[in-house]
Amino acid sequence: MSYITAAANSPTDSLLQELDRELAVMEVYVAHKLERISSLKGKLQSAEISLTDRYNLNYRIFSEYQSFNFDSAFTYANKLQKVARELKDTDKITAARMQFGFIFLSSGMYKEAIDTLGTIHTPTLPHTTKPEYFSLMARVYYGIADFNSDSYYTRVYNTMGNQFIDSVLLFSAPQSFEYLYFRGLRNARMLNINEGLSDLEQLNTRSDLTYHQAAVVASTLSDIYLRLGNTDKAIGLLAKAAIFDIKASIKETAAILIIADILRQQGQIRKAYEYTRHALNDANFYNARHRKIRVGTILPIIEEEKSIIVEGQKQRIITYAVVVTVLILCVFLFILIILKQLKKLKLADKEILKSNSSLQHTNHKLLEANKIKEEYIGYYFNINSEYLDKIEKFKESVDHNLTTKRFDHLRYVVKNIDLKKEREELYKSFDKVFLKLFPDFISSYNTLFKEEDQVCLGDMQLLNTDLRIFALIRMGISDNDKIAKILGYSVNTIYAYKTRIKNKAIVPNEEFEKRIMEIETV
Predict the structure, then answer these.
(1) How many CB atoms sit inside 10 A of residue 432's CB?
(2) Closest CA to 166 of 188, 182, 155
(3) Beta bridge partners of residue 435, listed in sequence order
(4) CA angle (91, 94, 98) in 5-degree steps
(5) Is residue 464 within 8 Å of residue 457, measured between CB atoms?
(6) Model confidence over 429-447: pLDDT tens digits?
(7) Angle 255-265/289-342 helices, nearest 10 degrees?
(8) What CA–CA distance (Å, rounded) separates 369 from 414?
(9) pLDDT of 37-78, one tens digit each?
(10) CB 45 within 8 A of CB 52
(11) Is 102 within 8 Å of 75 (Cβ atoms)?
């Protein structure tokens, strides 16, 4: 396998840049994996292969899926177990059970993993299989310890995990990946930091590891460096782990989510948001329940911090607008003084006309600035991934104009706020996301009405107000007051909409919303 290349800036910046490049071509790696899987499945369709070959092919397909997609891995683990039973091969049946344990562990189904692995009779396991079994049990209890994260049970589960690692070491060859990694992991768990670093750093320099092994080592090392307070080193290791996971098309991964959380704490909200979305996509793709929960705790925090940044920028805009207003009032006051002097000084007429012309020009600039401000604010909320950069450029421009006292340019700041357009864009974004989640919503909705009362949308229309009300209800927002606030109507209007729609339905009013809630997502 090829390792990460060195870079021009700091090592951490270079690795994050390489991570961004790999994220951009991630689907290429996924396509290659799917091609390999398709080829294996094609071989499996042959009617002439023996049961042993069928077992081996199912095992290879399972291996491709095991850290890629839980549902498919589960399907082929079942097939693996079925063929093993047909072969009446005890070792192969046990191996299939261990694969079930692996995918349950990867998906955060710790009880199921323990129940499955607990059915294996360890004394009869082949010597070469025992390290894998004990390492799985250790990872299960470590996973439970991390999930609980309390002062009592975490210590208990860590102790149980350490005991299983002792068994791993007993049956593993010294200097093997399993021996060095799990000894380093145990020392890290027991806070023997130097011993843990020694083993894991030794593995981190080896070139004979698979992408998955290298990713696991880098991720575990990053946790140690985080404890030591070396955040920069930890981010670099996490970036390496994430890159290896992408190259191996591993979707059951936490490295990129940990990077996102660290960057969030450092104030890099835009990059943190981007990485968190990638982590959520991976968790959904694999169906890793514990990863979804963790992403669900971080994503709202990032969204809130983004909102705080936006609110701060709005306050700056208001402040700049007040400054401009004061300046305009000063200009008007100056003009009044000049107008009074006109009665006494006819010679000042030319200067007054010049001042009036300047004032008209200033008013014209203010009108242009107001228009630009409205358009800017509308665009400002359009795309999350771009608007932080826009704000930064906007701030630099205003600061520069204040510094250079180019006050006529400041008027361009206040013209871009268009909340109506933002609300429409919000509705449009909501419609797109909702219809992605519920692609059959409109057709299912129409089945509740007679043909003449069914919704017929225009070519460019995603949802109308009737559909949007019940789309919100389908998303779990049933309170009329909340719906009214979201859609910008009064509560009475929402009530009237719902009553009118239900009266047209072919199902009883009291069952209408229940039928809406029965519309299934993808």
Answers:
(1) 12
(2) 182
(3) none
(4) 135
(5) yes
(6) 888 888 888 999 999 999 9
(7) 30
(8) 6
(9) 999 999 888 768 899 999 999 999 999 988 888 899 899 999
(10) no
(11) no
- pTM score, whole prediction: 0.55
Average pLDDT, stretch 119-132?
A: 88
The answer to whether 118 and 126 have CB atoms below 8 angstroms apart is: no
Q: Are 141 and 157 in contact (CB under 8 A)?
A: yes
**Distance between CA atoms of residues 448 and 440, nearest Å:** 13
The owner of tokens 């002062």 is 151
If pLDDT is split at 50, 70 and 90, which confidence band does 390 have? low
pLDDT at res. 421: 74
Q: What are phi and psi of 505, to 5 degrees?
A: -70, 160
| For residues 344-352, average pLDDT | 67
Which residues, 6 or more positions from 448, have their beta carbon under 8 angstroms from its beta carbon?
Answer: 505, 506, 507, 512, 515, 516
**Residue that has been written with the tokens 């027991």 in this structure:** 190
Would you say 313 and 395 are in contact if contact means Cβ atoms under 8 Å apart? yes
Q: What is the C-alpha separation between 357 and 500, in angstroms, rounded? A: 58
Count of CB atoms within 10 A of residue 87's CB? 16
Choose among 365, 449, 443, 463: nearest CA to 408: 365
Angle at 179 between CA 173 and CA 180, to 5 degrees: 130
Give CA torsion, residues 187, 193, 194, 198, to 10 deg.
60
Asked if 490 and 477 count as a contact pair (C-beta separation under 8 A), the reply is: no
Residues 308 and 301 sit within 8 Å (Cβ to Cβ): no
Over 60: is that where the pLDDT of 389 sits? yes
| Nearest CA among 225, 180, 231, 188 for reference residue 204 | 180
Q: Are 189 and 142 in contact (CB under 8 A)?
A: yes
* Residue position matching structure tokens 């421009």: 397
Which of these, 147, 146, 139, 231, lies nearest to 186 by C-alpha position? 139
Question: CB-based contacts of 193: which residues, under 8 Å, 6+ apart?
Answer: 187, 224, 227, 228
Mean pLDDT rounded to a whole number for the chain: 81
- Residue-by-residue DSSP string for 219-246: HHHHHHHHHTT-HHHHHHHHHHHHHHHH
Alpha-carbon distance 269 to 275, whole Å? 10
Please tell me the predicted confidence (pLDDT) of residue 412. 64
What does the alpha-carbon distance between residue 345 and residue 337 come to, in Å, rounded to a whole number?
12
Provide the greatest CA pair distance for the chain.
Answer: 116
Q: What is the pLDDT of residues 479-493, one digit of tens each?
A: 989 998 888 889 999
- Indicate the residue type of 446: N
Return all residues near 384 (Cβ < 8 A) that are at least 6 apart: 273, 306
Q: Which helix (H) or strand (E) holds 455?
A: none
Left if phi > 0, otherwise alpha if psi is -120 to 50, otherwise beta: which for 285?
alpha
Cβ-contact 162, 190 below 8 angstroms = yes
